[in-house]
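Hi again,

Forgot to attach this to my earlier email, sorry! This is the prediction with D-glutamic acid bound. I've pasted everything inline since the attachment limit keeps bouncing my files.
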Amino acid sequence: MGLIYGSAVAAENEGPIGILDSGVGGLSVLRHLRLLLPHETLLYVADQAHVPYGPRPAGEIGRFLEGLTRFLLEQRTKLVVVACNTASAAALDQLRAAFPDLPIVGMEPAVKPGAAQTRNGKIGILATVGTLESERYASLVERFAQGVTAFEEPCLGLVEQIEAGRLDGSETRQIVQRALAPMLAAGVDTLVLGCTHYPFVLPLIQRLAGPDMVVIDPAPAVARQARRVLEGRNLLSRRLERGEVYLYTTGDPGRLAAQARQLLGEEFPTAGLAWQGEENWNQKGNLLCLYKPMK
Ligand code: DGL
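Structure tokens for the complex follow:
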């Protein structure tokens, strides 16, 4: 009896955590999940065929997320972390409605922690256009930024620079400088990184904003939330050995492997995925995301 129950639980508990982003940004969340949950297996999916998500319509992002989540479910994923503010803002509710039995952790810009930490009532929010224009973001500001002035900046082109591995090039510096200029002039003392790509240019941001600027990366809080959800459902891994990490991309796997090496200093097995069904964009039916055979 005990054995049957035990093995059934173990099968679920040993399912992987799936992590989704348009590109490499979610790796800034993956590194904190790994620190906090070292025994978990992590499947990271980058939808690099469609990066950046920032300027895309919400409905489109929702269809991508559903396709990627179906792929993750085929891998027996027990929890999905949408490690992307833009995708969470666009389609988190849609995703939860499509997969009601699957625990899903989303992200939102850390407006509340930012408002709590500012000493002078001025905070800066760096996020994509999609996030800043979303209803979800408007509601966050409405609820948590009362009495605080929030300066917003979409940092156009920054995601592309980070995808290209240019973390401190002159173009990247210019984009960040342009974004920070009005905030620094206004005396902002706290910056919120509202896009998971941006922590990879944190050293640059801190250098340009000065050592006294408080910069908030929400990734550790997201990792804690993922742990809480797994604990609450009794789904934590029982393994004693370290969990593995596998990367997938709808773009070029060789490139993603190299990007991860640059950004995290580690090598991980990386495979390709292919989208199917995009040609029937306006028709009903699911977009499929399938393994791409190795050449
Ligand atoms: N990393 C994503 C985020 O957190 C979005 C980047 C993109 O525009 O694709 O918002």
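The two ends are 47 Å apart (CA to CA). The chain has two domains: 12-107+220-293, 111-217.

That should be everything now.

G.
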